[in-house]
Specification:
Layout: H1 3-11, E1 15-28, E2 31-45, H2 61-68, E3 76-81, E4 84-85, H3 91-100, E5 101-104, H4 108-111, H5 118-129, H6 136-146, H7 163-175, E6 181-184
Parallel strand pairs: 5-6
Antiparallel strand pairs: 1-2, 1-3, 3-4
Helix pairs in contact: 5-6, 5-7, 6-7
Amino acid sequence: MTSTAAKHASMVPVVRIRSLSKSFTSTALFRRTKVPALRGIDLDLHRGEIVALVGESGSGKSTLARCLALLEAPDSGEMLVNGKDISGLKGSAARNYRSEVQMVFQDPFGSLNPAFRVEHILERALALHQPSIKSKRAEMAKLVSTVGLSPDVLSSFPHELSGGQRQRIAIARVLAAKPKVILAD
């Protein structure tokens, strides 16, 4: 790639959001009202950039992340990732997209199945996103080491870990997908 082409590629946003809006319906004693969560949001995210959205509780930060992760459908607006409109993705296209864009949820206990050991949780993520890996055990040990934990945690259930350890496991699960974009709620 020439330096001009490389410079242009770095200027093109990985994520481009234009005029994104999302509202929720609230029902209270025979009355339904629309409650806006996002209104006309514009955002560009470039390769290698880290962007933090700051705002009070209820200002729409999680809703924006959930829209980008295809967990919520926006009411209007445009979401482009690598120049492609993602708002209508379904089936295998949505699954492929979710390998590239992963979300770390705010509540690690709620996002980790308490019925399974950490090993199963990470093994499933590897099976979904990196099925060609031969030594899943070695890759799981590498993932937990990357987030500052000992491979001993692989035999633990989520409830046996501290909140910080659970959050690290949630991050390791996201890293197992080797995503291009990580959304941290």
